[in-house]
Design a protein that fits this description.
The protein is mainly α. Helix 1 (about 5-10) packs across helix 3 (about 35-45), helix 3 (about 35-45) crosses helix 6 and helix 5 (about 70-90) packs antiparallel against helix 6 (about 100-115). The protein has helices at about 5-10, 20-30, 35-45, 50-65, 70-90, 100-115, 135-145, 170-175, and strands at about 120-125, 130, 150-155.
Length: about 180
């Protein structure tokens, strides 16, 4: 998917239109082939403050629905959120190559979250095991709360996520 196809997929004309929760969700939940350059071109046009707010909101919703016994996944997703928000803030402050780094981190997260089969779900009633993306396994967990089905989740394969170094500033600590 190139820039034009990506923007059409997100239903935006340019990066300044990327301002809704659904825009962020559609991007990170896409398991389609999006070129890294298209992601970078989107990031080049983003309002980075709005992007950081959307990222915070999306991850807040995501973290609320992680199965209680998946502490390592919760911690990993919290760290990924901090990396993305930190990269957006770095770009907002004009750090060299920060937008490129943000685009790379965003694309890495999208592929890991939506395209890779790195989650395992076992239906405790039937014994059936499914191998799904983290996105789909967490959607399954959310649905299970309503259906009454009991599932067991294993995200150990997903925990191998490669993180770039992340530096937390004193202002980040203060906000916590």
């Amino acid at each position: 998917m190139d820039r034009e196809e990506l923007f059409a997929f997100l239903d935006i004309d340019d990066g300044s239109d990327f301002q809704y929760f659904e825009n962020f969700a559609d991007l990170v939940e896409s398991d389609g082939q999006i070129s890294e350059e298209a992601v970078y071109e989107l990031v080049e046009e983003l309002d980075l403050k709005v992007f950081a707010e959307l990222c915070e909101s999306y991850f807040y919703d995501l973290l609320e629905n992680i199965p209680d016994d998946q502490i390592d996944l919760y911690n990993l997703l919290e760290t990924i959120k901090r990396v993305l928000v930190g990269a957006a803030e770095g770009a907002r402050q004009g750090e060299e190559n920060a937008r490129r780094k943000l685009a790379e981190e965003l694309d890495r997260f999208r592929l890991w979250y939506s395209a890779e089969t790195n989650g395992q779900c076992k239906n405790l009633q039937s014994g059936e095991i499914s191998f799904l993306s983290v996105r789909d396994a967490l959607a399954n967990a959310r649905l299970a709360r309503f259906s009454g089905e009991e599932w067991e989740y294993d995200f150990s394969d997903a925990l191998d996520y490669e993180l770039d170094e992340y530096t937390m500033t004193y202002s980040d600590l203060y906000e916590e």
